[in-house]
Predict the structure.
Amino acid sequence: MILTAEQQAILNGEKGETMAKVMKTLVMYGDAFEAEKLVPITSKYNHLVTSFGLKVMSPVYDLMQQILDADVASGQKFSVDPRPLDSNVPASFLQKFVFKNFMYTKQDFYEKQLHKLGLIDENAFTCACYMDEVGNKPKKGDVLSWAESSAVVYANSVLGARCNRNSGILDIMGSIVGYVPYFGLLTDEGRKATWVVKIETTKKPEAQLLGSAIGMKVMEDVPYVVGLDKWLGTELNDAACTYLKDFGAATASNGAVGLYHIENLTPEAKESGKDLIVEGAKEYIIDDAELERVKANYPVMWKNPDAKPKLCFMGCPHMSLEQLKTWTDKVEAALKENGNKKVLIPTVFTAAPKVLEAFNKTEYAARLKATGVITSYICPLMYMNNPLCKTMPVITSSNKLRTYTSARYYTDDEILTAITKGGK
Amino acid sequence: MKKFKGRIVTPGTVSAEAVVSTEGFNTLASFQMALQFGDKQVKCGDQNNADLYGKPLINKALCLPQTIGSTTGGLVLYCACAMKKNPACMLFANHIDSLAAAGAVLADVWVEDITMPVIDCLGDEFINYVKDGMKITIEEDGTVVVED
């Protein structure tokens, strides 16, 4: 890798040992991908994936402390993934005891570190930082040092920013030196599609299921999706962006997708169309049967597969304002149709604190509350990341939550029926 | 016995027993429960990985095509190394992915007294040939020796 004089000086230790180690990390990381240079980060804000003060992650907090002690934190402020705990979310006495005394014992300590490192403010905890209400929305062409997989794939695909699927810790290291290695999704070549995915379903495919199918098929490659504009339209309105948020998160967690193009919809596909597809690209056709096959193959991790669900989580990644409003209408209507007044399963809708703040200013908030649905800023994945939840029958329409926990996946319609009518 | 030549991502020599994932290895899903709750054998917790689910990973030669899943993967691997609960080495059939590369580099630069050699680009022939329980030796020049 060819470094500028300034970068070489940092690597040589002229700005101290810690800064040299940060630079060495980025250079070695870039070397693994034959990156020829480092390029400047151009986004206003950074976003960190590590939001949780898990005792087991002590090595991460020790490393953050080294950065703080060396006084090398950058001036670039950042948002961060959601908090792992919220007293609004139902939990048993034992769960609360384990969360507080065994798992998240470092939460307060780590949040203090985050503030010192440059957290935007104390409400900047969400995986969906790109929401208008949150304000960390990069511009097209911005170079980022983000790591949260669902945010990276959204920023690349829907916003047209440029970011590799970096790992946690690498996100803050890029921000500290102000540069990231130039490879992969930062390059024009790396943004070309090596798969053409044809959507041939008879109805609008479930976002989380479609993303899962594509992720598992293409792994880390870039798919160019044909036929989805038939269902989403050709404008990136609130509904389309919400769909792509959930779709992208599933491609990134069930596979390792960092960028997708949707023909006639996402910015680069609109600009360049099929010129984005490399010669010899592989093809994947998705019809109703293929989506059914994918869904049927999800393992059921519940101890008793016929158990009655005890909790329902919606919002992994965090829900948009549009989604909260739409679901309020849907839950209300379904309860009325089924002759019920409140949801039959404890149900939690999660969203960014600033999205919830905006939602609470609308008339929808009181209506949703009346249905019994709880809203929270929590990270459902972090909530479920313990053996006590392994035996707990939780349902979700999030394929990311299903992948990392014992939560069971159902489509949005199935979830709506389960919480308003009963049954699984 | 068969020898495979790949590319050294982080150097080192080691001998260990192989555990093989023929599909993408999800680092977060595989390690999170074991690290969180002090499983000494570091058994793979990824319910979607039919090859490795429930098998010990510590001090094994982890053979895989690439890693997949959440981008906390690199820091999870870094934590596993810092806690000395890491595989003995990681052997990738494909080019290493960005998450595994980050984890390997973070461990190499920031963790003292750790050697976890990482070799990539070993090819499909490697992942098709190697099986659980085979003896793996990594030589100084990055050659991977696989013995029945």
